[in-house]
């Protein structure tokens, strides 16, 4: 076992604090990765505060991991020491079910091993995430980071990037489509950049009037403040596709009315249960769908797409020691547009 410094939440009400975890020695198909950067996803906050239930403590969050291969098992064929690689939201899956065979490991029927707050495929060993200095992982669950994307700006692609790319692709967003992104946070700002790279006309729907200039700088064509009730009447029927990234409860019905005939709204944000009326769906033959991250193959496709189109996240790099403050700012929608932890800040920490 390899003693590894980390930051963990001891319970749903504890702040994150220094902690030590054991990483396994690399097996024949494993790689050991020195972590350079880890993005801070709102899912880290939901889980560290047990907002989804069933949380496993102590919890080391973090699933937007960029690092360098430090060691390879004897039969590793895809990676060599020194490669810059990424790890997203899961580290293993059953590899046998229909979802795994289709390259949609995140929907593994037997349950994927998520990067943290989860268990390895043995059903017992807890997984620990990227708020740590190194990680051991099977080589098949690692992706390549294209040259040209700075590593700290690549980290958020591993969750925020793939979570927005996958539904844009799957629901066929095409040049000229009028689409809306709801919520301009980590996911939302990637949705804007990727929607533009797909050639769509992109409108941001935000409850933060102060983000207008940023939205336009990020490439959005239009910006609508959702605090004003007229926003929903004036823009009724305007969009063919809406991607909803909002982390807090809000009225889905109001947003559905912004879709035209046969329009689709895809939920990726994960707030608590919210009432849904039949009327907005029925009266416009509209569709409401959901989407969760993406498989390994699609994540690599997204990274290559970002490399080819010059797409990367806008980040605020922080030392690990500022993580609790970063959580508070994220909760206030004050993130521009992804916090990314520089793991060099952990080097000064003793191993406890
Ligand atoms: P984030 O950076 O905090 O962004 C969320 C945005 O939602 C905020 O910036 C804000 O944008 C908007 N918002 C927040 N509170 C709101 C409120 N009360 N009313 C209306 N809008 C509000 O979070 P994130 O990391 O992008 O994650 C967003 C959600 O997606 C989280 O629930 C997360 O767990 C989930 N998620 C899902 C997947 C998946 O696979 N489906 C993957 C990753 C994350 P404005 O200021 O512009 O309104
Ligand atoms: Zn995430
Ligand atoms: Zn499976």
List key phrases describing it.
352 residues, alpha/beta, 7-stranded mixed beta sheet, 17 strands, binds NADP nicotinamide-adenine-dinucleotide phosphate
How does this model look, in words?
With 352 residues, this protein is of the alpha/beta class. The protein is 23% helix and 27% strand. It contains eleven helices and 17 strands. The protein has helices at 42-48, 98-101, 151-154, 160-170, 186-197, 212-218, 230-234, 252-256, 279-282, 296-309, 323-331, and strands spanning 2-9, 16-23, 30-39, 65-72, 84-87, 90-92, 113-114, 134-138, 143-144, 178-182, 201-206, 222-225, 239-244, 259-267, 287-290, 315-319, 338-342. Strands 3, 4, 5, 8, 9, 16 and 17 form a seven-stranded mixed β-sheet that branches. It has a six-stranded parallel β-sheet with strand order 12-11-10-13-14-15, covered by helices on one side. Strands 1-2 form a two-stranded antiparallel ribbon. Helix 4 (160-170) crosses helix 10 (296-309). The longest helix is centred in the C-terminal third of the chain and has 14 residues, at 296-309. It is globular, with a radius of gyration of 20 Å. The relative contact order is 0.16. The mean pLDDT is 97. It binds NADP nicotinamide-adenine-dinucleotide phosphate and zinc ion (2 copies). The site of one zinc ion has 5 residues, from loops.
């Amino acid at each position: 076992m390899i003693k590894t410094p980390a930051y963990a939440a001891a319970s749903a009400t504890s702040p994150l604090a220094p902690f030590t975890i054991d990483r396994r020695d690399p097996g024949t198909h494993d790689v050991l990765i020195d972590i350079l950067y880890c993005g801070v996803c709102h899912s880290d906050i939901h889980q560290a505060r047990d907002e989804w239930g069933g949380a496993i403590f102590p919890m080391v969050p973090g699933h937007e991991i960029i690092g360098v291969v430090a060691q390879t098992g004897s039969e590793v064929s895809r990676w060599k020491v020194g490669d810059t690689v990424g790890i997203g939201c899961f580290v293993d899956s059953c590899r046998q079910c229909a979802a795994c065979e289709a390259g949609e490991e995140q929907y593994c029927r037997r349950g994927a091993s998520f990067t943290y707050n989860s268990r390895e495929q043995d059903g017992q060993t807890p997984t620990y995430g990227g708020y740590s200095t190194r990680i051991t992982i099977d080589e098949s669950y690692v992706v390549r980071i294209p040259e040209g994307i700075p590593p700290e700006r690549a980290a958020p692609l591993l969750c925020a990037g793939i979570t927005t790319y996958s539904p844009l692709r799957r629901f066929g967003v095409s040049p000229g489509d009028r689409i809306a992104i709801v919520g301009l946070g980590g996911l939302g700002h990637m949705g804007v950049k990727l929607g533009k790279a797909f050639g769509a006309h992109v409108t941001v729907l935000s409850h933060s009037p102060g983000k207008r200039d940023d939205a336009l700088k990020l490439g959005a064509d239009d910006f609508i403040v959702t605090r004003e009730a007229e926003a929903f009447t004036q823009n009724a029927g305007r969009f063919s596709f809406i991607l909803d990234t909002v982390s807090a409860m809000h009225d889905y019905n109001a947003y559905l009315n912004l879709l035209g005939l046969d329009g689709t709204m895809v939920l990726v944000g994960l707030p608590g249960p919210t009432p849904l009326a039949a009327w907005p769906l029925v009266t416009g033959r509209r569709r409401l769908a959901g989407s969760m991250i993406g498989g390994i193959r699609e994540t690599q496709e997204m990274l290559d797409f970002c490399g080819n189109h010059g797409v990367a996240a806008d980040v605020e790099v922080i030392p690990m020691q500022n993580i609790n403050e970063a959580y508070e700012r994220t909760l206030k929608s004050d993130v521009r547009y992804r916090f990314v932890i520089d793991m060099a800040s952990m080097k000064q920490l003793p191993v406890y």
